[in-house]
Write a structure and sequence with these properties.
The protein is an all-alpha fold. Helix content is 77%, strand content 0%. α2 crosses α3, α3 runs parallel beside α5 and α5 packs antiparallel against α6.
């Protein structure tokens, strides 16, 4: 069969497996909700222990990052993501997983060229463009404030 710009999309549409969208959406929602509920449970526990809102929030972040890195290194996070999909991308745990995975994949290259260089290979662009967008939005808001358009 000869493919051109018109026949190839039709061919792929016919032969691509159907995605169970409703099931995937439900699993992502439940998984993300469970991760967030666990975070809230941790926060309430830390709040009882410390009595300080700010400290308990920091401890929750540190705990979730640690657990995400631990589960990634044990291969559990990837197994969960295989079934739960986007639900595992809850910001702090997904970001920790995105930093940890390339580092583990390249650990055989050594501490500098493997772990050090590859840790931020996926999350680096997110940090870069997120920071750049924050600066641009801040400048725009500052200019709007100067001209009185708030």
């Amino acid at each position: 069969m000869k493919f051109d710009r018109k026949t190839y999309p039709e061919y792929t549409k016919r032969h691509a497996p159907r995605s169970p969208t409703a099931k995937n959406t439900f699993l992502a929602f439940v998984t993300g909700g469970c991760i967030c509920a666990a975070g809230q449970g941790l926060k309430e526990s830390y709040l009882v222990l410390t009595g300080d809102e700010k400290t308990s929030g920091t401890l929750v972040s540190v705990t979730l990052i640690f657990l995400s890195c631990l589960f990634t290194s044990l291969g559990l996070y990837d197994r969960l993501a295989k079934h739960a999909g986007a639900g595992t991308l809850v910001p702090i745990t997904g970001f920790a997983n995105a930093c940890m995975s390339p580092a583990l994949d390249n650990k055989s290259e050594g501490w500098i060229s493997g772990l050090g260089a590859k840790t931020f290979i996926i999350s680096g662009p997110v940090i870069l463009y997120g920071t750049a967008a924050g600066v641009i939005y801040g400048v725009v808001l500052w200019i709007l404030g100067l001209i009185g358009a708030k």
